[in-house]
Amino acid sequence: MKLLIKSGRVIDPANKLDEVCDILIESGKISKVAKNIKAAADKTIDAAGKIVLPGLVDMHVHLREPGREDKETVSSGTKAALKGGVTSVLAMPNTNPAMDSTENIKLLQKIIKDSAKADVFICGAITKGRLGQELSDIKALKKQGAVAISDDGASVDSDKLMEEALKLSRDEGLILISHAEDKALSNKGVVNLGLTSTRLGLKGISKESEYKRVARDVELAEKLKSPIHIAHVSCKESVEIIAKAKKRGAKVTCETAPHYFSLTEEAVLNYDTNMKMNPPLRGKEDLEAIRQGLKNGTIDAIASDHAPHTENEKDIEFERAEFGVTGLETELAVAITELVDTGLLSLSGLAEKMSLNPAKILKINKGTLSVGAPADLVIVDPDKEWLVEKSAFVSKSKNSPFLQRTLKGVVEYTIKNGIHC
Amino acid sequence: MNELIWKRKDLLGLEDLSREEIEFILSTAESFKEVSSREIKKVPALRGKTVVNLFYEPSTRTRVSFEVAAKRLSADVINIATETSSVKKGETLIDTGRNIEALKADIIVMRHNYSGAAAMLARHVNLSVVNAGDGWHEHPTQALLDIFTLKEKLGKIEGIKVSIIGDIAHSRVARSNIWGLTKLGAKVTVCAPKMLIPPGIEEMGAQVTDDVDEALHNADAVNVLRMQFERDESNAFPQQLEYFKNYGITEERLEKAKKNIVIMHPGPINRGIEMSSEVADGANSVILEQVTNGIAVRMSVLFLVAQANEHIKKDETAD
User: Which residue of A has its CA nearest to B200?
Assistant: First the structure.
């Protein structure tokens, strides 16, 4: 099976490539990237006027299976991924059961083998049941195929346990992903603490609850010379702490999510539960700091934190509604609209944040169009606009904060292992 | 002409309202006030309409006030009191609202312990929703009756100084009063121990102090909030006696205040905690007049939302 992609603007930051050329794919791998490739292909795609990016690697996705198949499954979540141009996802471990043992990972691997449409990488749980009490057998998780560990949704409160986890992840070569939140400080809040929480009469989540934990985690990782990755950075202070640590040479990386560079707490003012997530939407200066962090390289990656929930769990009183929003099907268009169109990031910069860097952080062989690499790529019309509509989502859940927004950038083809999906 | 000013099917809070809309509710209330002093205390304004009082939190005074207001407008009134805990196991709020709508009721007056509940309900039903208090968010009719009473006593709202004293952080009465009073040009100061002042309150237009004598100084009126010790989850509230010592309104404290300062309280009063009995029953207290005015204000609100909704429905059928 040979596939030839003609005349697209090929963006491949791993090879510092940004030019109009052709790509030949053979047996699921990239076999040639050059101008005017003359080859007899089984199929040719005319990509003139389009951009060709390495398939996106989304390092923060909740597929909900096993346990909450009513919200999402590996099958529906990976279909949603492909629709959004995402060819690899990292599945977060807060499933039921949690991914805290060889046995549970095996269970998920079987589901993936049977039903995944995109590549699913597994993030193991740092602690058993993600309860922050007792470490999982991290060595065994790695052996079984986990590429990262995290207690996402919760932070490891105990300094001592966190140190142990960082040592093990360092020695095993597994990246530890920190959900940085001091729950004693976030105090059961539901929106950003400040004028917004006061206006709405809701409990607030302070920025301190995030950045104080970021500071602790960075400090511990630095002391132990362990790499650490900070998930869903939402506020200015966190960006500043990470920027300083990077300057000192700490092995810290971080991600943000599309909603943190495109929406502020003002979006919550009519109690729209599709604007409820954790960490919460913050202020204008935070949004600006996130954008600058993306631009200057402090923030390495963009990940959706795709968190599907049923309508019954979302269309209720704000305080009772679940935290989290979907993102797989909108993240690329939101990033093009908010970052590329505004001149904040080049297309190459975008491909770094959404494909190359997450692949590097997870140490997986993805994120590039190098010859010999798996032929995971996405062809996008960067100028075409579309309206985000509930009925068009293929995810089982529709809790998107971008409903009814017009976005720029349409995924025309997602190609996985050389096959158009 | 008047109908053009009020076009909302719901009253959810004062934050969203314009000065003109607030003034219109108040002037409509003035014309309804007289009904309650008639021998036959009834007008046919809402005859044939059904008002449902849907209360998820125990409340006597607000519920009774709405009930009296609706009855004086000749509406039929149904009272539903629901334990909050049953919300979790039972019917969702939206389903409850839709069932009430299917009964062909016209207005739901709702008290709910979750902030934003009234706004959510209003989005899902076509009948009118009047917020009778949602969480810590708003209690618009309480603020409207407070403002109505102040206007009666002081002749105007523009330029007057009003201090709100008590647990501002957890008070929907404080929030609605701040929005309403500042929109009408009053100067509002909030006063409480620092831990009971929520962040961002200055950006809402209020000045802040933790010194009660400063709050009383030069104030034309003071609105004393109920200290809700029963709701304290953190056990961080000051002790009751300590609170009275530092923040309680006493005759001694009032000696330094304006002679004609208007003393308000949304009730029920904790005598000896927020204020002394002498002050509650004293010459400056308008606490019972607030109760009387509450009827007129709620008649006005019920009448206006019902009328607006009829216009909305007519417009829809015209399309």
Answer: A195
B82 and B47 together in one domain: yes
Within a domain: residue B318? no
Q: Note the pTM of the prediction, 2 decimals.
A: 0.94
Return the closest-CA partner of residue B304 out of B17, B91, B15, B54. Answer: B17
At residue A178, what are phi and psi to the nearest 5 degrees? -95, 125
Residue among B92, B94, B115 whose CB faces A201 most closely: B115
Given pLDDT bands bounded at 50, 70 and 90, which one contains residue B1? very low
Helix (H), strand (E) at residue A240: helix A236-248
Residue found under tokens 């996405």: A378
Q: Which of A12, A119, A182, A305 is catalytic?
A: A305
B310's tokens:
């009829």
Neighbours of A217 (CB within 10 A): 25
SS3 state of residue A131: coil
Number of Cβ within a 10 Å radius of residue A173: 10
CB contact under 8 A, A316 and B138: no
| Strands lying side by side in the sheet with A175-178 | A56-61, A86-91, A119-124, A148-150, A175-178, A228-230, A252-256, A301-302
Asked if the C-beta of A271 comes within 8 angstroms of chain B's C-beta atoms, the answer is yes
A334: domain range? 55-368+383-406
Q: What percent of chain A has pLDDT over 90?
A: 99
For residue A242, the domain's CATH number is 3.20.20.140
Prediction ipTM score: 0.93
Q: Does a structural domain hold residue B92?
A: yes
Whether residue B207 sits in one domain with residue B125: no
State how far the Cα of B154 lies from the Cα of B289, in Å rounded to an integer. Answer: 14
Is the domain of B145 the same as that of B280?
yes
Q: How many domains does chain B contain in total? A: 2
Residue B277: which domain range?
140-290
Q: Tell me which H or E stretch contains B77.
A: strand B76-81
Q: At CB < 8 A and 24+ separation, what contacts does A42-45 make? A: A42/A1, A42/A2, A42/A3, A43/A2, A43/A3, A43/A4, A43/A420, A44/A3, A44/A4, A44/A5, A44/A6, A45/A3, A45/A4, A45/A5, A45/A6, A45/A379, A45/A413, A45/A420
Say how far residue B100 (Cα) sits from the centre of its chain.
Answer: 24
Using CA coordinates, name the residue in chain A closest to B136: A201
Distance CA A205, CA A279 (A): 8
List pLDDT tens digits, range B93-144.
999 999 999 999 999 999 999 999 999 999 999 999 999 999 999 999 999 9
Instruction: Name the amino acid, one letter, at B175.
Output: R
Cβ neighbors of A147 (< 8 A, separation 6 or more) are A90, A121, A122, A123, A174, A175, A362, A363, A364
Sort out which chain A residues have CB atoms less than 8 A from B117's CB and list them.
317
Asked whether the beta carbons of A53 and A351 are under 8 A apart, the reply is yes
Q: Which residue of A has its CA nearest to B12?
A: A270
Phi first, then psi, for residue A157 (nearest 5°) are -70, -40
Active site residue A305: yes
Task: Tell me which chain A residues have a C-beta less than 8 angstroms from the C-beta of B120.
Answer: 271, 316-318
Is A419 a domain residue? no
CB pairs under 8 A between A and B: 65
**Chain A residues lying within 8 Å of B92, measured CB to CB:** 312, 316
Class of residue A223 by CB neighbours under 10 A (exposed 0-12, middle 13-18, buried 19+): exposed
Question: A204 vs B199: CB contact, 8 Å cut-off?
Answer: yes
Greatest C-alpha distance within chain A: 66
Say if CB A271 and CB B119 are below 8 A apart.
Answer: yes
Q: B111 has which bridge partners?
A: B55
B120 close contact with A: CB closer than 8 A? yes
Instruction: Return d(Cα B4, Cα B308) in angstroms, integer.
Output: 9
